[in-house]
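Fold this sequence, please.
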Amino acid sequence: MMVKRNSLIFLTAFGLLLTGCGKSGLEITKDDILEVARDDANATKSECENVSIKEQKGSYIVSFNTNGGSYEYKIGKNGIIKERSFKRGAKEETTETEKVEEPVKEEKSITSKKEEKSSTSFDEGQQQAINAVLANSGLVQDDVSNITCSLDSNTNQYTVTFVLNDVTTTAVVDAATFTVISTILG
């Protein structure tokens, strides 16, 4: 009789444990959301100042400053970035804002793709940066259109943008090592 009772208690406790573990909603904390934003900005915790996280209609608004500029993100409670905004240092008025959406796949004919290609020539450093980004994406220059490349001498980084299947890609490349630092599809 004692064995059946202990087994029953064990099975009841095990059932309660499984019921408690059955919560399917993933709970993302404000620290997790901040980590998503910092990772996207390629900034460490010590580089971020004036950090602000506000909850707003199913999303979090995260903002912080680094030596390179100020960042603001709208991140869903699922951890997905919905919008991002970057403003370089106080002296410059350059603001880059982009709405992040799931890419829409559209078919285009090859002839219209070739018409979009630009015949811009790049210096050796720019071409190396472009080649690094394309190799990192598994592409060649003929696969993409509207390629631009510029060097930010303050950060010693190239910014490369191109269009592939109506989706603009922006990548940042270290000018000294030609290593791709970040890539943003948008």
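The radius of gyration is 24 Å. The longest helix spans residues 2-21.
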